[in-house]
Design a protein that fits this description.
With about 400 residues, this protein is mostly helical. It has 16 helices and no strands. Belongs to the chromate ion transporter (CHR) (TC 2.A.51) family.
């Protein structure tokens, strides 16, 4: 009964985040930090930053992988699955229903409150960066690493460069950074390496086997799984990077028209939850799929499966590595660099896609005031800001 209650808590917490986490991957990490680190204290700030750093190295949607890992640490593999379902379910349902009823919906008529959602995400991200910066950049050396990371990414932004900067920052941590006290170490997951190794093997087996199987089995579902699994397995740099990969899979094949593709992409940016949920929309509207719900679920699971296999497979090895003295020193620099990555993303795309006028900025600072100083819950600030923005922008 105790285990069941723990699983229920994992699911309900993720479900709440799935309904309230607007603003894209960086904002999701901010909402996660507020919920899992600050409020529930399921994971420490240092362990959370370590986890974010790991997910920056792995392909797939980083925010979803962080949620899976926290669910895993609380309730095992079933906890990871429930965490993913809870966080993904709201956006997937919205996109499936949107796809099935596209002819009767016009999202352009709701631009006022949609813009309000983007604005409040700026305040949420700002609060999270400030909180993480205080803990992970407490001295001038680490603050310098963070700022330099941010500056470089603002000049030259790419997923490969992010990974390179994390590696360089780790080396700086090993050779130049010193902590006045031992770096806090909080276990993320104590799973067996043998289980992790099996999940990593399964990841690569599916990656290479599915294209072969597609040539021999003439089933639409197999084609879906191959296309969406490959897209999810080869994405570095966040959810937006998966879009050209998905477009190359579904538009030239005639599964989805380019107009439908762009309409779904626009909607996926206006709702809470992971951008990878866009795959459910594509499955729902695909011309090769007679049953919209079946195709949507197959495509959704296939797109997320690589990230699930990777995070479950990598965590036991990562947990063992974090106990090493040199790795822990490297994490001083890597954690500072993670703050810099978030800071660069705070400007683009979070700020640049939301703040266009003094009214926008006014809503941002009020939202930040309510979150940081009045300590109001993020979901309440989201609702209040959207309600006010409707009248402000009208």
């Amino acid at each position: 009964m105790k285990y069941f209650n723990k699983l229920l808590q994992i699911f309900l917490t993720a479900l709440k985040l799935g309904f309230t986490s607007f603003g894209g991957p960086i904002a999701h990490l901010s909402y996660f930090h507020d919920e899992y680190v600050t409020k529930k204290k399921w994971i420490s700030a240092h362990a959370y930053a370590d986890l974010v750093a790991l997910c920056q190295f792995l392909p797939g949607p980083a925010s979803s992988q962080v949620g899976m890992a926290i669910g895993l640490s609380r309730g095992g593999i079933l906890g990871a699955i429930l965490s993913w379902i809870g966080f993904t379910l709201p956006s997937a349902l919205i996109l499936i229903l949107f796809g099935l009823g596209l002819s009767t919906i016009d999202i352009t008529n709701h631009k006022h409150w949609l813009h309000g959602l983007k604005v409040v995400a700026v305040a949420v991200v700002a609060q999270a960066i400030l909180g993480m910066g205080k803990k992970l950049c407490p001295d001038k050396e680490r603050l310098t690493v963070s700022i330099l990371t941010s500056v470089i990414l603002l000049f030259f932004s790419s997923a490969i460069l992010q990974i390179t900067l994390l590696v360089i920052s780790g080396l700086i941590g090993v050779y130049f950074l010193k902590s006045k006290e031992d770096l806090p170490h909080d276990s993320i997951h104590n799973g067996k390496k043998s289980i992790g190794f099996l999940f990593l093997i399964l990841f690569f087996v599916l990656l290479f086997l599915l294209p072969v199987l597609r040539n021999f089995v003439n089933l639409t579902e197999v084609q879906y799984v191959d296309s969406f699994y490959r897209a999810g397995a080869l994405v570095f740099g966040g959810g937006h990077v998966v879009l050209p990969l998905l477009q190359a899979e579904v538009v030239p094949t005639g599964w989805v028209s380019n107009d439908l593709f762009m309409a779904g992409y626009g909607m996926s940016n206006a709702i809470p939850g992971p951008l990878f949920a866009f795959s459910s929309f594509l499955g729902a509207v695909s011309t090769a799929n007679p049953n919209g719900w079946t195709g949507a679920i197959v495509c959704l699971v296939a797109a997320f499966l690589p990230s699930f296999l990777l995070i479950i497979g990598a965590l036991p090895f990562w947990e063992q590595m974090r106990k090493n003295k040199w790795i822990r020193k490297a994490m001083l620099g890597i954690n500072a660099s993670v703050v810099g990555i978030l800071l660069a993303a705070f400007y683009n795309p979070v700020w640049t896609s939301a703040v266009f006028s003094p009214k926008d900025f006014a809503l941002v600072i009020v939202g930040f005031l309510l979150l940081e100083f009045w300590k109001l819950p993020s979901w309440l600030v989201v609702i209040a800001t959207v309600a006010v923005s409707f009248f402000v922008y009208l």
